[in-house]
Amino acid sequence: MNFSSKLLSNAVEEISKLPGIGKSTALRLALHLVNKEKGDIDLLLKSIRDLKDSVVFCEKCKSISDEKICDICLSVNRDTKTLCIVEDIRDVMAIENTGQFKGLYHVLGGKISPVDGIGPNQLNIDSLIDRVESEEINEIIFALSATMEGDTTNYYIFRKINKDGIRFSTIARGVSIGDNLEYTDEITLGRSIIKRIPFEQSSS
Amino acid sequence: MNFSSKLLSNAVEEISKLPGIGKSTALRLALHLVNKEKGDIDLLLKSIRDLKDSVVFCEKCKSISDEKICDICLSVNRDTKTLCIVEDIRDVMAIENTGQFKGLYHVLGGKISPVDGIGPNQLNIDSLIDRVESEEINEIIFALSATMEGDTTNYYIFRKINKDGIRFSTIARGVSIGDNLEYTDEITLGRSIIKRIPFEQSSS
User: Fold this and answer.
1) Does the CA dihedral B17-B23-B26-B31 come out positive or negative?
2) pLDDT tens sequence across B181-198
3) In chain B, what are the domains?
4) Who among B17, B27, B66 is closest to A5 (CB)?
């Protein structure tokens, strides 16, 4: 693109480095910022600066937090014996929004993916193992993506944890509630038939 | 959304105020920023700060510029007697990229749109009229959106300029080059038939 302003060109360049934002969107955002009130820009820049400078990761669950230990880990109303393993904080938020889980989380920070150069050492797996060994845990629920990488990560962790008395589970996979069968992909539908559940259990 | 961190929640709130960016995208961007190098964040924030603090609008054409007069208006290689009227700087960039126009521009900053509360006084129309009266202009080319608002704005400006010896034109409208007729909307196609051009002229 042919910019009339070096300042504009710089801003577009930097904004377009954000994921999912191309040059055209970056230009639209930059022009929007030029026309905005200075106070609004200050708020935006300050919020990003504060986030970067002050945010910490919870020492227990590795989720993003404002304090050393996050609110969920500190809460006295949670079942501390059940751990849900997730990829990142968005998954914590998604599960919290369902209101169906009262245990604690452990955020891995991704999943094992050799293609992307992510091995077990890049993930919060050692801290998970320490946690399972030092705390009283009854159940570990894997809530990772239903992909090959997710399954590999689940299996790696399952093999690494040598402790008796822990039940392992993965969140259920199958046809989404409300979905029409004709629009369900065939792998999901096929697995749903193989992993069918007794009718008496299906409505509970 | 249920955030574990006030800092994260603030950043998402501010980022989602940008046009076309919803809460989910804002969260994705905020988490990306958390994981980025501090130096990269500094560059991003500085580029936005510099853009906001130092950018100016060219005194002649009202385009975004780093100096009082922009490079295009300063250039000695441009035809100063032909003015192209556009809505915003993106249009200047789009026309410059074609390499087909060697005149000067005038950026209105929008188009007359009573629905959005934008009247002639919110646009750079007075400065355009001053410019036409004080400079030697032979031709004015309207390159606004091919919409009712664009046409209204063209007509308003056409009526306001009382000076002999100026040719007015609008950029051509019709079927896009490379387009299949069956996918062209019927209004464009209908107008293309009414405004058909002699065959000898069509290939020049």
Assistant:
1) positive
2) 888 888 888 888 888 887
3) 6-54 (1.10.8.420), 74-171 (3.40.1360.10)
4) B66
